[in-house]
Amino acid sequence: MTVLLRLAIVILAGLCGFAAQPAHAMTRIKDISSIQGVRDNLLVGYGLVIGLQGTGDTLRNSPFTEQAMQSMLDRMGINVQGIALRAKNVAAVAVTANLPAFAAIGTRIDVTIASLGDATSLRGGTLLVTPLNGADGIVYAVAQGQLVSGIQITGQAETLSQGVPTAGRIANGALVEKQVPGRLSELPEFYLDLTNPDFRTAAAIADVVNAYTQARYGKRLAREIDLRTVVVQRPERVNPARFLAEIGDLQVEPDTPARVVVDQRTGTVVIGRNVQVSTFAVTQGNLTVQVTETPEVSQPMPYSFGETVVVPRTDIAAEESGGPIGIVRGTSLQSLVNGLNRFGLKPTDIISILQAVKTSGALQAELVFQ
Predict the structure, then answer these.
(1) By the 8 A CB rule, do 200 and 255 touch?
(2) Does the chain have fewer CB atoms within 10 Å around its N or its C terminus?
(3) Any residues with CB less than 8 A from the CB of 252 and at least 6 apart, and which?
(4) CA 326, 328, 331 angle in degrees (round to 5)?
């Protein structure tokens, strides 16, 4: 068997395998939706980082750091009122964290720290006890620990930086002190929010869930409300966590809108699966203008009173290149791609053609520019 024959067999097998794949992919419900109310909560706090090697805030330029130090020392029984503090190993920071849904008391969560003053680096610092508040002003967690940040080494002629030295992170640096109100078992029904809202996808999710609950519980428990939300009633005497796990593993075929996304900065064109085009004819030509400057030196005749000057000489040539007009037929994404590929166009040319095709009404899709 020759090498060419083996290569032909391999290519044919690959094409057959590609054709055997399903055109529409099935996706789990939990990958395209989220449960309404089951989400993270944002926490924020104000604290002090100590132990810096002379890279902290300048207290004269950051008076809030000095006030925070005085308040902290007062709570510890040290009276520093009226004393000008000049420490340079302390920095005021903002501490943020995400409180996961149903996080129990005593759970550890990660925190992020960022400098508020003019500190140059937080590397090697330790965050003092910092209460973290929610949007309602209640303390839900307390953070403390040694943070990890970027580095910055400065010399007389060069500076070396890695990462961001004025921001850091403490893994498992906060303890949850209060649980967010609400339990999963208290919800009589669950609302599924679609990541990409679509009426057909919402109806497909409701149909798949109803087929499953009808076979398992003898009831149809799901209904679509709008293009974004599907509500599912909880069966009686059923563990809600297990029920949501079963619903999340069900597979549906999400519908995608007919959309063409164009990023003009990078020349990227993304064409959706459902994009359709009507038959249209197109030609693409480029106008090239070449300007050549060849200045010449003009010298006066001997024994004359003239001056030597530079005389400009400009040559302008225009050339327009373009191929014959071509016809793109068909109503599928493949026909559109094949038709554009026949011209051997650059991304910028494809973008201009798509704009013209959309204006002519032959592109049956939404054209989005980024």
Answers:
(1) yes
(2) N
(3) 26, 27, 29, 32, 201, 204, 205, 208
(4) 175
Residues 6+ apart with CB under 8 A from 122: 49, 52, 55, 91, 93, 113, 115, 147, 149, 165, 166, 167, 168
**Domains of the chain, CATH where assigned:** 41-176 (no CATH), 183-252 (3.30.70), 259-298+308-369 (no CATH)
pLDDT of residue 322: 57
Residue 178 structure tokens: 């209060």
- CB contact set of 79 (below 8 Å; sequence gap of 6+): 73
Encoded tokens for 164 = 């961001």
CA–CA gap between residue 133 and residue 130 (Å, rounded): 10
Strand-pair partners of 62: none
Whole-structure pTM over 0.90, yes or no? no
3-state secondary structure of 240: helix
Question: Nearest 10 degrees: CA dihedral of 327, 328, 329, 334?
Answer: 160
Region 75-95: mean pLDDT is 84
Among all chains, which residue has been given the structure tokens 């109503």? 331
Residue 351's nearest CA partner among 323, 328, 370, 338 is: 370
pLDDT, one tens digit per residue, over 123-152 is 889 999 999 999 999 999 999 999 987 766
Tokens of 33: 């939706």
Q: Of the candidates 275, 259, 264, which has an alpha carbon nearest to the alpha carbon of residue 370?
A: 264
The residue count for the chain: 370
- Provide the 3-class DSSP secondary structure of residue 256: coil
Gap between the Cα atoms of 296 and 52, Å rounded: 67
Name the least confident of 96-110, 180-194, 255-269.
255-269
| Distance separating alpha carbons of residues 353 and 361, to the nearest angstrom | 12
Which amino acid, 293? E
Q: Which amino acid is at 73?
A: L
The label of the residue with tokens 């004269």 reads 60
Q: What is residue 116's predicted lDDT score, i.e. its pLDDT?
A: 92
Contact 262, 268 (CB under 8 A): yes
Tokens 């592109």 correspond to what residue? 363
Higher pLDDT, 296 or 141: 141
